[in-house]
Amino acid sequence: MPPKRSITLTEAELRLMKVLWRRGESAVSDLVAAMPDGESLAYNSVLTTIRILEQKGYV
Predict the structure, then answer these.
(1) Residue 43: alpha-carbon gap to chain centroid
(2) First and final CA of the chain: distance in angstroms?
(3) 0.70 exceeded by the pTM?
(4) Does residue 41 belong to any structural domain of this protein?
(5) I want to staple 53 with a disulfide (CB 3.0 to 4.6 A). Which of 28, 36, 47, 58 is the partner?
């Protein structure tokens, strides 16, 4: 049985959502570039996190 997905935001999801709230609709490459210093994420990590946020209904 696969693990249950949490409907709450993880730390990484929350960091990404803060950027989205600030910028509005953005491309993944724009989100990668807009991450605050010390909180950078790889392109694929941002893409995967956005997909998870979409599944959770946040984006």
Answers:
(1) 11
(2) 27
(3) yes
(4) yes
(5) 58
Both tokens of 4, joined, read 């249950």
Please give the tally of structural domains in the chain.
1
Give the side-chain half-sphere CA count within 13 A for 12. Answer: 13
pLDDT over 90, % of the chain: 76
Q: Is residue 4 part of a domain?
A: no
Contact 55, 48 (CB under 8 A): no
Over the stretch 16-42, which tens digit does the pLDDT of each residue have?
999 999 999 999 999 999 998 888 899
| Cβ 53 vs Cβ 13: under 8 Å | yes
Q: What length is written for the chain?
A: 59
Q: Which domain holds residue 32?
A: 11-56
